[in-house]
């Protein structure tokens, strides 16, 4: 199913493919707006901070005592999201599919004409969840880290159900070799994999890894990934400063810089709304969605306006460096991540 929407207020079009997760935005004279003024196109929603794996690198410190979002709160969010024109949501956590009412979360999103995808660690995936995903949901992403049996089972099961399956891989200095090995793996049924999404490690929470460093190993991996043919390859927007170095290998129209506060937002299991999930450790920076509406927070919250201001001018950026002001890659990169010093040019 493909949805095409025209934003009349800002005169641009937004196309979203429910099956593949591909989103395309274009406006007058092939320009797109800097941000969508009426509300986000995408919401990243944590519906639980529960996770039985308790991985030491989890930036949200998810654990076996984690909280679950109240379903009534989620219903309120979906009602407001539909009115604001949200097209898709990404359910996360914790491990979202272990929420006791998970199938209702998928069904409710569909009832509000919103596509719900989610990321799982592979635990707690039942036949009921696969059936609900097929009936109401979008794509499934599975986190890729040792041991890999759970991830492979999810990929194969999604293939059996005809569900679009993605792999999420966390990139840091110590995992580049493993990322290269993933691309060479013969144990994955590649016919069932829609895409691999590589995520730049953010030094928040336990901060146990060293960030990416510019070297020959990383360069070789990026070049290999960008020419990979077994499935699609994607990178989160936090990788943008690393990708522009190899811009001759990418279709620039397929690349966007940080969308936090421009086209996307995050809501925690407690109902606090932020421009980006990596700000959620600071509860004072979040706005409670039962005290201010989703649209009001989006338009008027100080933290959202601050994020947008940072992305409009190099002089306002926090993490990037002053060289951004004169860099030829700035129009594509916009200084990379605005929250953490994880960019190539530091």
Chain-wise SSE layout:
Elements: E1 2-7, E2 12-17, E3 23-27, E4 42-46, H1 71-84, E5 88-92, H2 102-111, E6 115-120, H3 127-136, E7 140-143, H4 149-161, E8 165-171, H5 176-183, E9 193-200, H6 216-226, E10 232-235, H7 240-243, E11 264-267, E12 272-274, E13 287-288, H8 294-300, H9 302-312, H10 330-333
Parallel strand pairs: 4-5, 4-11, 5-6, 6-7, 7-8, 8-9, 9-10
Antiparallel strand pairs: 1-2, 2-3, 11-12, 12-13
Helix pairs in contact: 1-2, 2-3, 5-6
* CATH third-level topology of the largest domain: TIM Barrel
> What spatial order of strands do you see in the largest sheet?
10-9-8-7-6-5-4-11-12-13
CATH superfamily of the largest domain: Aldolase class I
Give the strand tally: 13
Protein name: Pyrroloquinoline quinone biosynthesis protein PqqE
GO molecular function: catalytic activity; iron-sulfur cluster binding; metal ion binding
InterPro entries: 4Fe4S-binding_SPASM_dom, Aldolase_TIM, Radical_SAM_PqqE_MftC-like, rSAM, rSAM_sf
Keywords: Iron, Iron-sulfur, Metal-binding, S-adenosyl-L-methionine
């Amino acid at each position: 199913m493909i949805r095409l929407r025209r934003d009349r207020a800002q005169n641009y079009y937004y196309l979203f493919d429910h099956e593949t997760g591909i989103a395309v935005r274009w406006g007058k004279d092939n320009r797109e707006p800097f941000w969508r003024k009426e509300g986000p196109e995408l919401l990243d929603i944590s519906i639980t901070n529960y996770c039985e794996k308790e991985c030491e690198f989890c930036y949200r410190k998810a654990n076996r005592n984690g909280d679950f979002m109240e379903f009534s709160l989620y219903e309120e969010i979906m009602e407001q999201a539909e009115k604001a024109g949200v097209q898709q949501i990404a359910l996360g956590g914790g491990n979202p599919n272990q929420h006791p009412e998970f199938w209702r979360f998928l069904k409710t999103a569909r009832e509000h004409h919103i596509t719900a995808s989610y990321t799982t660690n592979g635990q707690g995936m039942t036949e009921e969840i696969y059936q609900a995903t097929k009936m109401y949901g979008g794509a499934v992403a599975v986190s890729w880290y040792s041991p890999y049996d759970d991830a492979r089972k999810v990929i194969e099961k999604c293939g059996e159900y005809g569900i679009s399956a993605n792999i999420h891989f966390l990139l840091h200095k110590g995992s580049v070799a493993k990322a290269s090995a993933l691309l060479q793996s013969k144990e994955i049924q590649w016919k069932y994999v829609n895409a691999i999404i590589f995520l730049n490690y953010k030094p928040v929470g336990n901060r146990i890894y060293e960030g990416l460093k510019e070297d020959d190993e990383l360069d070789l991996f990026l070049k290999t990934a960008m020419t990979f043919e077994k499935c699609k390859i994607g990178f989160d927007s936090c990788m943008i400063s690393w990708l522009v170095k190899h811009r001759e290998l990418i279709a620039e129209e397929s690349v966007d810089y940080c969308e936090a506060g421009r086209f996307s937002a995050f809501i925690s299991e407690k109902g606090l709304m932020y421009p980006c999930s990596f700000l959620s450790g600071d509860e004072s920076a979040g706005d409670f969605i039962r005290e201010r509406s989703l649209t009001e927070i989006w338009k008027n919250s100080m933290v959202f306006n601050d994020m947008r201001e940072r992305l409009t001018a190099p002089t306002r950026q926090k993490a990037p460096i002053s060289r951004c002001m004169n860099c030829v890659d700035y129009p594509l990169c916009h200084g990379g991540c605005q929250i953490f010093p994880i960019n190539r040019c530091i």
